[in-house]
Amino acid sequence: MKVGRGDSLKRLILAIVLLIALVFSGCSSSEAPKSTAKDQDREFIQWYKKHSRLVIDDFRQIRIALERGDIDNAASWAKQMKSDTETPRCDEFKVSTKLVPAQTHYKSFLASMNQAAAGLLDFFENGNSKSFDTALEHLETAFNQLNMTESYIQKYCESHEC
Known about the structure:
Elements: H1 5-25, H2 37-67, H3 71-86, H4 100-126, H5 129-159
Helix pairs in contact: 2-3, 3-4, 4-5
Protein backbone atom coordinates (compact mmCIF):
# COMPACT_ATOMS: atom_id res chain seq x y z
CA MET A 1 0.00 0.00 0.00
CA LYS A 2 1.34 3.39 -1.01
CA VAL A 3 1.30 6.20 1.53
CA GLY A 4 0.27 9.49 -0.02
CA ARG A 5 1.54 12.96 0.72
CA GLY A 6 -1.61 13.79 2.65
CA ASP A 7 -1.00 10.92 5.09
CA SER A 8 2.63 11.94 5.65
CA LEU A 9 1.61 15.52 6.28
CA LYS A 10 -1.07 14.40 8.76
CA ARG A 11 1.48 12.25 10.62
CA LEU A 12 3.96 15.14 10.74
CA ILE A 13 1.31 17.51 12.09
CA LEU A 14 0.21 14.91 14.66
CA ALA A 15 3.84 14.40 15.76
CA ILE A 16 4.34 18.17 16.15
CA VAL A 17 1.12 18.51 18.15
CA LEU A 18 2.14 15.63 20.43
CA LEU A 19 5.62 17.13 20.89
CA ILE A 20 4.14 20.50 21.81
CA ALA A 21 1.72 18.83 24.24
CA LEU A 22 4.62 16.95 25.84
CA VAL A 23 6.64 20.14 26.26
CA PHE A 24 3.76 22.06 27.79
CA SER A 25 2.75 19.23 30.10
CA GLY A 26 6.24 19.40 31.61
CA CYS A 27 5.75 23.11 32.33
CA SER A 28 2.66 22.83 34.46
CA SER A 29 2.57 25.01 37.54
CA SER A 30 2.05 22.02 39.82
CA GLU A 31 5.58 20.78 39.14
CA ALA A 32 7.54 23.99 39.60
CA PRO A 33 6.04 26.57 41.91
CA LYS A 34 6.59 30.09 40.67
CA SER A 35 7.76 32.73 43.06
CA THR A 36 5.15 35.20 44.17
CA ALA A 37 5.45 38.97 44.04
CA LYS A 38 6.15 38.95 47.79
CA ASP A 39 8.95 36.44 47.24
CA GLN A 40 10.47 38.62 44.52
CA ASP A 41 10.20 41.68 46.77
CA ARG A 42 11.90 39.86 49.65
CA GLU A 43 14.63 38.51 47.39
CA PHE A 44 15.27 41.98 45.95
CA ILE A 45 15.51 43.54 49.42
CA GLN A 46 17.91 40.82 50.62
CA TRP A 47 20.04 41.15 47.49
CA TYR A 48 19.99 44.96 47.72
CA LYS A 49 21.20 44.90 51.34
CA LYS A 50 24.08 42.53 50.52
CA HIS A 51 25.05 44.20 47.27
CA SER A 52 24.92 47.77 48.57
CA ARG A 53 27.16 46.78 51.50
CA LEU A 54 29.61 45.25 49.02
CA VAL A 55 29.76 48.40 46.87
CA ILE A 56 30.02 50.70 49.90
CA ASP A 57 32.79 48.51 51.31
CA ASP A 58 34.66 48.87 48.00
CA PHE A 59 34.41 52.65 48.39
CA ARG A 60 35.46 52.44 52.04
CA GLN A 61 38.55 50.45 50.99
CA ILE A 62 39.42 53.19 48.47
CA ARG A 63 39.19 55.78 51.24
CA ILE A 64 41.36 53.68 53.59
CA ALA A 65 43.99 53.18 50.86
CA LEU A 66 44.05 56.92 50.18
CA GLU A 67 44.43 57.68 53.89
CA ARG A 68 47.49 55.42 53.85
CA GLY A 69 48.81 57.05 50.68
CA ASP A 70 48.58 53.76 48.77
CA ILE A 71 47.40 54.89 45.32
CA ASP A 72 47.94 51.45 43.75
CA ASN A 73 45.67 49.82 46.30
CA ALA A 74 43.10 52.60 45.88
CA ALA A 75 43.16 52.00 42.12
CA SER A 76 42.72 48.28 42.69
CA TRP A 77 39.65 48.92 44.86
CA ALA A 78 38.28 51.40 42.31
CA LYS A 79 38.54 48.63 39.69
CA GLN A 80 36.71 46.30 42.06
CA MET A 81 33.98 48.88 42.66
CA LYS A 82 33.64 49.41 38.91
CA SER A 83 33.30 45.66 38.42
CA ASP A 84 30.77 45.30 41.24
CA THR A 85 28.56 48.00 39.73
CA GLU A 86 28.73 46.94 36.07
CA THR A 87 26.51 43.88 35.93
CA PRO A 88 24.02 44.14 38.74
CA ARG A 89 21.20 41.63 39.08
CA CYS A 90 18.80 44.48 39.77
CA ASP A 91 16.67 43.88 36.67
CA GLU A 92 16.29 40.17 37.40
CA PHE A 93 13.78 40.93 40.13
CA LYS A 94 10.15 41.46 39.12
CA VAL A 95 9.26 43.55 42.15
CA SER A 96 5.82 44.85 43.03
CA THR A 97 4.85 48.36 41.97
CA LYS A 98 5.51 49.63 45.49
CA LEU A 99 9.18 48.64 45.17
CA VAL A 100 9.77 49.79 41.60
CA PRO A 101 10.94 53.26 42.77
CA ALA A 102 13.47 51.62 45.11
CA GLN A 103 14.73 49.41 42.30
CA THR A 104 14.98 52.41 39.96
CA HIS A 105 16.89 54.53 42.49
CA TYR A 106 19.22 51.62 43.23
CA LYS A 107 19.99 51.23 39.51
CA SER A 108 20.80 54.97 39.44
CA PHE A 109 23.01 54.52 42.51
CA LEU A 110 24.92 51.75 40.75
CA ALA A 111 25.31 53.77 37.55
CA SER A 112 26.65 56.76 39.50
CA MET A 113 29.02 54.59 41.54
CA ASN A 114 30.26 53.02 38.31
CA GLN A 115 30.93 56.46 36.82
CA ALA A 116 32.62 57.53 40.05
CA ALA A 117 34.84 54.45 39.94
CA ALA A 118 35.78 55.21 36.33
CA GLY A 119 36.67 58.78 37.29
CA LEU A 120 38.70 57.67 40.28
CA LEU A 121 40.56 55.15 38.14
CA ASP A 122 41.38 57.82 35.57
CA PHE A 123 42.67 60.03 38.36
CA PHE A 124 44.72 57.28 40.04
CA GLU A 125 46.18 55.91 36.81
CA ASN A 126 46.56 59.09 34.73
CA GLY A 127 46.53 61.92 37.27
CA ASN A 128 43.51 63.55 35.63
CA SER A 129 42.23 65.95 38.31
CA LYS A 130 39.10 66.79 36.28
CA SER A 131 38.14 63.10 36.48
CA PHE A 132 38.54 63.27 40.26
CA ASP A 133 36.19 66.26 40.48
CA THR A 134 33.66 64.49 38.27
CA ALA A 135 33.98 61.35 40.41
CA LEU A 136 33.13 63.38 43.51
CA GLU A 137 30.00 64.71 41.80
CA HIS A 138 28.97 61.16 40.86
CA LEU A 139 29.57 60.02 44.44
CA GLU A 140 27.27 62.75 45.75
CA THR A 141 24.58 61.73 43.27
CA ALA A 142 25.09 58.06 44.11
CA PHE A 143 24.62 58.52 47.83
CA ASN A 144 21.51 60.64 47.27
CA GLN A 145 20.12 57.78 45.16
CA LEU A 146 21.06 55.27 47.85
CA ASN A 147 19.22 57.34 50.47
CA MET A 148 16.13 57.40 48.23
CA THR A 149 16.38 53.64 47.75
CA GLU A 150 16.57 53.09 51.49
CA SER A 151 13.63 55.42 52.08
CA TYR A 152 11.39 53.49 49.66
CA ILE A 153 12.42 50.17 51.17
CA GLN A 154 11.70 51.40 54.71
CA LYS A 155 8.25 52.60 53.63
CA TYR A 156 7.61 49.25 51.97
CA CYS A 157 8.74 47.32 55.05
CA GLU A 158 6.44 49.35 57.34
CA SER A 159 3.44 47.70 55.69
CA HIS A 160 4.93 44.42 54.48
CA GLU A 161 6.92 41.59 55.98
CA CYS A 162 10.57 42.08 55.08
